[in-house]
């Protein structure tokens, strides 16, 4: 009986490691699609009733999502840089592990790229105005 249990632990471990990210992504996408579907159904009912669509009315419809602001890239980049620096410090001082240190540098570099993209797009849109 113990050999069966010993064989099941790695199987469930592999399923958990590779299955959980898929479940998390599926759940997020599923509920995002349900929210969009609810918004479009409500919008179709309003159009069919002949009601005038004002911005205030649009915002009151369940599932409404405003456009992302240009600051979201800057904010996300700053957060990624902070997380990357934290991982670097953990790898350097806490664990003395170069793999963790390198992973932190990778995350920080992603943050620098996202931050610079946000700053560039903000500057580019202000020049167009």
From TrEMBL:
Highest taxon of the lineage: Bacteria
Domain DUF6249: 11-121
Keywords: Membrane, Transmembrane, Transmembrane helix
The keyword Transcription regulation appears for this protein: no
Residues spanning the membrane: 7-29, 74-93, 99-120
InterPro entries on file: DUF6249
Protein name in UniProt: DUF202 domain-containing protein
Organism (species): SAR92 clade bacterium
């Amino acid at each position: 009986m113990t050999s069966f249990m010993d064989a099941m632990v790695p199987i469930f471990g592999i399923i958990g490691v590779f299955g959980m990210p898929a479940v998390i992504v599926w759940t997020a996408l599923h509920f995002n699609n349900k929210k969009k579907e609810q918004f479009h159904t409500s919008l179709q009912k309003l159009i069919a009733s002949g009601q005038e669509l004002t911005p205030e009315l649009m915002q009151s419809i369940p599932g409404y999502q405003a456009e992302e602001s240009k600051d979201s890239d800057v904010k996300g980049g700053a957060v990624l840089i902070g997380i990357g620096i934290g991982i670097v410090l953990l790898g350097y001082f806490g664990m003395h592990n170069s793999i963790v240190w390198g992973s932190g540098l990778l995350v920080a570099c992603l943050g620098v790229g996202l931050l610079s993209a946000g700053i560039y797009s903000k500057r580019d849109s202000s020049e167009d105005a």
